Amino acid sequence: MYLMKDITRDGNPVLRKRAAKIEFPLSEEDQELAKKMMEYLEVSQDPELCEKYKLRAGVGLAAPQVGVSKQMAAVLVPPLDSDDEDAKPLFKDVIINPVIVSESVQYGALTEGEGCLSVDKDVPGYVPRHDRITLRYQDVKGEKHQVRLKNYPAIVCQHEIDHLHGVLFYDHINKEHPFEAPEGTIMIS
Ligand SMILES: Cc1nc(NNC(=O)[C@H](CC2CCCC2)CN(O)CO)c(F)c(N2CCN3CCOC[C@@H]3C2)n1
Ligand code: NI
């Protein structure tokens, strides 16, 4: 099981590389990688286990963050109001060779800003992303998917896909006016 010691931190060149495309059928190694990345998210979203293993909670995790420069990311976006435990996640899958095939002109940004398991410092500010995207990817079985995502799940997937292109969230924050967002940005909280 991945622990925080396994997470690569900003400064490690692997986080600034373009990750390699993955071949299908998945190797045993890549299947194991997918499983362990999703497992990290599930464990980190369980308050007791998160505390027990001293994890930072996550809703997404990209392969370069565990030192593997391959185009794979696990995404587990729970419903925003998590009082109903067994409500199904807004988006849950391991996205392989993801491609954003279309994106809204309108921006979306998390009201709280963003963080990253690979960035130990807080970097305040809005991270403007596309509010809606059409995402094409393959899952661990090689099945092709084309999904339209908006708001929270769209933000998470864009954060993860950025990692596969060597981009970190703070690259998008306006240096002079960090809490300024483009006209018409949808604020998501
Ligand atoms: C928004 C949020 N970001 C958390 N952490 N950061 C991450 O996930 C980074 C990726 C996210 C940062 C902004 C967009 C994508 C990890 N990244 O570096 C991967 O590239 C959270 F933990 C979190 N939630 C809300 C849901 N809650 C359910 C119950 O368990 C706790 C959990 C906390 N929401
Ligand atoms: Ni991140």
From TrEMBL:
The active site is at residue 160. It catalyses: N-terminal N-formyl-L-methionyl-[peptide] + H2O = N-terminal L-methionyl-[peptide] + formate. Binds 1 Fe(2+) ion. Its EC number is 3.5.1.88. It is an enzyme of class 3 (hydrolase). Its cofactor is Fe(2+). GO terms for molecular function: peptide deformylase activity. Fe cation binds at residues 116, 159, 163. Keywords: Hydrolase, Iron, Metal-binding, Protein biosynthesis. Removes the formyl group from the N-terminal Met of newly synthesized proteins. Requires at least a dipeptide for an efficient rate of reaction. N-terminal L-methionine is a prerequisite for activity but the enzyme has broad specificity at other positions. PANTHER family: PEPTIDE DEFORMYLASE, PEPTIDE DEFORMYLASE 2. HAMAP family: Pep_deformylase. NCBIfam families: pept_deformyl (TIGR00079). Belongs to the polypeptide deformylase family. This is Peptide deformylase. It comes from Limosilactobacillus pontis.
